[in-house]
Design a protein that fits this description.
It contains eleven helices and four strands. A two-stranded antiparallel sheet has the order 1-2. The termini are far apart.
Length: 295
């Protein structure tokens, strides 16, 4: 009699890969209190604001001190339950109204993306399909970006992160920060960027789309660049793959950090831990140091 071969879930298999396990252990040490030496410097250009962080926790603490961020985080918490209720009632109009409230303090993001929501047929069914796949331990991304299929962009990622536990919003800043730590891990180990850690990032940003400070690629080691993928189905499938892998990486690193140093990781000791890391990455990824600065 032939024995049935049962494959482990994709998440379990992915996180068990030596290079992936090595990276999450590396990131865990940063989450548990390792300090930047020298301090991490970054800056906004419009308006001109300079930041100095001594650790990932410090980046979170500075994030949550800024009034717009406080209001946004409060809106997310207040809208989480109404958003879920509208979703499971298949109330498309109600769902959109909650999303508007969520993004009330980030008007530019809402203005450029709400029309997409409003013209989506069977919106709640589409969102539920995305939530099922991205919540799975073995996601299938082929449906994303196709005609009638769910969307996967930075805007939709924020919505999914409100609906899915331990799911990371994946916008240009957060992607830049996570890919920066991947770069630093590879450099510390003297290895090339492995395919397993080759997540997506943004090639250019800002008004002219030519500001390269959110692409941590170095030498021949290039992260996937969403901007260069012209066809929407492939672009959004690539985004979905990067998004769920990023979520797995950060969630695993948080778990390891808590075991590594309960005191140093106390700042991520609540149910919203992944969103605190997300807030820290949102600050760290404003503009990452170029590779040459590390030489």
């Amino acid at each position: 009699m032939l024995e049935t071969c049962i494959l482990p879930p994709a998440r379990e298999h992915y996180l068990s890969l030596p290079v992936v396990d090595g990276f999450t252990s590396y990131l865990a040490r940063w989450l548990a209190g390792r300090v930047f030496d020298p301090p991490y410097l970054t800056q906004l250009h419009r308006p001109k604001i300079e930041y100095c962080f001594t650790s990932i926790q410090d980046a979170w603490e500075q994030y949550i001190q800024e009034s717009p961020n406080v209001k946004f985080e409060q809106a997310i918490l207040e809208c989480e339950d109404p958003l879920r209720k509208a979703l499971y009632k298949f109330d498309d109009k109600g769902f959109i109204e909650v999303v508007k409230k969520m993004f009330a303090t980030r008007e530019n993001l809402a203005k450029s993306n709400l029309p997409t929501l409003e013209k989506t047929q069977y919106l709640c069914e589409s969102i539920l399909c995305a939530v099922r796949e991205l919540s799975s331990d073995s996601p299938e991304v082929d449906t994303f970006g196709s005609v009638g299929g769910p969307r996967c962009t930075a805007f939709f990622s924020r919505i999914y992160a409100t609906l899915i536990p331990n799911f990371l919003t994946y916008d240009s800043r957060i992607a830049a920060a996570l890919c920066y730590f991947i770069r630093e891990y590879c450099l510390s180990r003297g290895i090339a960027l492995p395919e397993e850690l080759r997540l997506g990032c943004v090639l250019g940003w800002g008004k002219n789309k030519k500001e390269m400070g959110r692409n941590p690629s170095w030498g021949d080691n290039t992260f996937l660049v969403f901007d260069l993928i012209k066809k929407r189905p492939l672009k959004e499938r690539t985004f979905a793959l990067s998004n769920y892998r990023a979520s797995w990486l950060v969630a695993d690193a948080i778990s390891k950090a808590k075991k590594l140093d309960s005191r140093g990781s106390a700042w991520i000791g609540d149910p919203h831990a992944i969103h605190k890391v997300e807030g820290a990455f949102y600050m760290i990824g404003i503009e990452v140091p170029p590779y040459e600065a590390n030489v």
